[in-house]
Write a structure and sequence with these properties.
This protein is mostly helical and 170 residues long. It has five helices and three strands; from the N terminus they run H-H-H-H-E-E-E-H.
Length: 170
């Protein structure tokens, strides 16, 4: 097996693409924080104690914790919460994959007007793909992350796990 060093020349990304990738990153950070808040609420932790715990937990594990706690606390009284959470969790998986591809993929100049995203995966079977994406498609991904976050928070507002602050924020 040969050792190969690949050098990629940096390309200037169009501002609209950079803005869209930034929005994807920002919206997903909001989703991560929402998951932390829900764990704190389900465990009865205040923000100070919660911040000592949840930053050390990967997103996949956070969702497993949330699913377990929802089952523990609501399976008898509100079983539909488990079904709703499963649907939201599936959507979270999809937006997280998209976010990871956009944030961790390599962006290079495309043949047309849109940059191309190169994504490589190596879990089990190595896979790589290249796709050209316009900024509107990327911005739509950010909007979907925001909608998933809102639906996730709405479920836990309805269950009384979290509340709105005085400014109407969650």
């Amino acid at each position: 097996m040969a050792k190969v060093l690949v050098t990629v020349a940096p390309e200037v990304m169009p501002d609209d693409h950079l803005k869209a990738i930034g929005m994807i990153t920002y919206k997903h950070a909001t989703l991560d924080y929402a998951m932390e808040n829900v764990i704190w609420g389900l465990l009865g932790l205040d923000i100070l104690d919660g911040r000592c715990l949840t930053p050390h937990i990967a997103a996949r594990v956070r969702m497993d914790i949330i699913k377990s706690l929802v089952h523990q606390h609501f399976s008898q009284t509100t079983p539909e919460a488990i079904t709703k959470l499963a649907a939201i969790s599936s959507r979270m998986d999809a937006v997280t994959k998209s976010r990871n591809d956009s944030v961790h993929g390599l962006w290079v100049k495309g043949n047309g007007s849109n940059p191309m995203r190169i994504v490589s995966k190596a879990r089990g079977k190595p896979v790589a793909y290249i796709e050209a994406l316009d900024s509107k498609t990327l911005m739509a991904e950010a909007v979907e992350i925001e909608q998933v976050t809102n639906d996730f928070l709405a479920l836990f507002l309805d269950l009384g796990v979290i509340t709105l602050d005085q400014n109407g924020d969650r």
